Amino acid sequence: MNKLSVKWRITIWYAILMTVMSAVLLGLTLSVTRGMMERDLSGRITRTVGELAHRLSGPMMPPPKADKSIDRNKDVHYFEQGVHMALYNAEGALIAGHIPFTLGDTPDFQDDVLRRTVYEGELCLVYDKSVRTQDGQSLWLKGIVSVSAESYMLRAAAKTNILLTLALITAAAIGGYFIIRHALKPVDAISKAAHEISESNDLSRRIALSGSDEIHRMAAAFDGMLDKIEATLEREKQFTSDASHELRTPVAVIVSECEYMLDCAKSTDEYRESAQSVKRQAEKMSNLIAELLTISRMDRNTQAFTPEDLDISELLTFVCEEQQDIHDNAVHLHTDIPVGIIVQADRFLLARLLINLISNAYQYTPSGGNIWVSLTQADAQLCITVRDDGIGMAPEELPKIWERFYQVDPSRSNQNGSSGLGLSIVKWIAEAHHGTVSVQSASGKGTSFTLLLPLHTDI
Predict the structure, then answer these.
(1) Displacement of CA 406 from its chain's centroid (Å)
(2) What secondary structure letter does DSSP report for 61?
(3) Do strands 342-345 and 308-311 pair parallel, antiparallel, or not at all (unpaired)?
(4) H or E element: which one contains 13?
(5) pTM over the 0.70 mark
(6) Alpha-carbon Rg of the chain, whole angstroms?
(7) What share of the chain is helix, strand, coil (3-state, %, to 5)?
(8) Main-chain phi, psi angles of 381, to 5 degrees
(9) What is the CA angle 232-427-324, rounded to 5?
(10) Which CA distances in Å does 449 have to 64, 156, 216, 342?
(11) 72-108 pLDDT per residue, tens
(12) What is the rounded distance in angstroms from the CA atom of residue 45 to the CA atom of residue 128?
């Protein structure tokens, strides 16, 4: 069965189901019909015998005389509605009528009792009725109807119904096969397209089926999945290329400085300057590798995440003071941080998010500029805003800043050792806390990042 195609399996199960249902329906029909037939026979024999007994006991129809020498009594037949009837005297001698079975020398009579008896291999219903004539004679009227004869007609009708049903099932199975084959054509198209994509490694191909039923929706979902896979692979290719490029630059500088120290440097100051350059590039490589490892753990959902009740006011104040000590004091940092606000968050990840946002503001704000950091609380949500009056960004650049390795001003980023991964990490951390981060900016007017986090959440 498993080796058959889906079309044949569905057709076979469909035919089996129809056969079982038809068999059950025919069985029920036969059972009900048999019951109705037996009730009809019972009512017919009792009614027919009763009516004839009534007529025989009345003045309108005197019974024949029992006289074996008179042959005309043999011509008197009582047969109505399939019921054979015979009239007997009190001693059991046949007076009139005809019974198509041998009843023996002395028939058995049971007044007003309907019973089943087998005569000569045939099942019969027998009904006797005692008759009292007007002249005082006691007679017996016996009625017999063959159940087997009636059942034969029922069996013949059942055979005809079975043959017709089998013909209908066969026709339905053949028609069903063609309907199923037509309905499954899109599945064949999906299978063929998937095979061709697998063989050619061309993820730009699509199934592109038009329709609205379940299979066409599956094809559309398959196309959507291919879109995501293609986009993911393109991002991975770009990520690998960008990472290689970012690592190649410091490595080239380190190699160059080492060659200079070995071949050209003569004084201690020259050695010191080259060593410092090597140290700076090594630190840049170390930071880049750390961020790459973080990105990798985030993609694989293995980044450690330990939420706790955290004093966000204290953490934000500490990060601001640290960034002031690290960066150019010519950029003025203004803070508006109320004390005592508690949030459920991972201390390490949230600190990294704040450091990335504030250091990013320092990076793109020239000397003499300003940075504003504020913390507010509304209902069950806190809002952190980091705003600057730096170089800003064009509207078309805003959707791209969350992409890995994207840099608005590569020359400024390289000067400050930025790798272009900071904002993608910020976005992941915000979403991991069930929060959101958004940006507003305009060229030459500065940039504002807004972080919204729930104070308490089941993480």
Answers:
(1) 39
(2) S
(3) antiparallel
(4) helix 6-56
(5) no
(6) 51
(7) 55, 20, 25
(8) -140, 145
(9) 135
(10) 121, 88, 42, 21
(11) 344 456 888 889 999 988 888 888 888 888 877 678 8
(12) 10
